[in-house]
Design brief:
The chain is an all-alpha fold and 128 residues long. The protein has one domain. Helix content is 84%, strand content 0%.
């Protein structure tokens, strides 16, 4: 559920940035390149955010695991950009999203490995 909320929030932020690029700029007036920056952000954030949200909502756990890693890396990139331009709101948001995606990835991985471990003894009994 956490990843569903985080991914949806990211996609909505990207849509808002397309509408008003200055939202990405910590409230400062948008310059000529801000629309390009917003479009570049949206081109990644909308499809990635929606894919994570749809898989998390549909409980598509198997394909969600690697996608959460991709989402975390993208958010860490957003964090680096925010830090470089001194945008604390974007830095905090992207750091929280990255942490949430990594937490979700780790939880899915632990779950998958524990399920595999529980199934292993049963398979060895059948083979004997």
């Amino acid at each position: 559920m956490l990843n569903l909320v985080l991914a949806t929030g990211t996609a909505v932020s990207a849509l808002l940035a397309l509408w008003r690029p200055e939202l990405l700029l910590n409230g400062t007036p948008a310059e000529a390149g801000a629309g390009f920056y917003a479009a570049a952000y949206a081109a990644r954030a909308i499809p990635l955010g929606m894919a994570i949200a749809l898989l998390a909502g549909a409980r598509g756990l198997r394909p969600l695991e690697p996608l959460l890693l991709v989402g975390a890396v993208a958010q860490l990139g957003d964090f680096a950009i925010a830090a470089a331009v001194a945008n604390p709101g974007m830095a905090i948001g992207s750091a929280l999203c990255a942490a949430g995606h990594l937490f979700g990835w780790r939880a899915l991985r632990v779950r998958r490995l524990s399920e595999r471990h529980r199934e292993a003894p049963a398979e060895s009994v059948v083979r004997q």
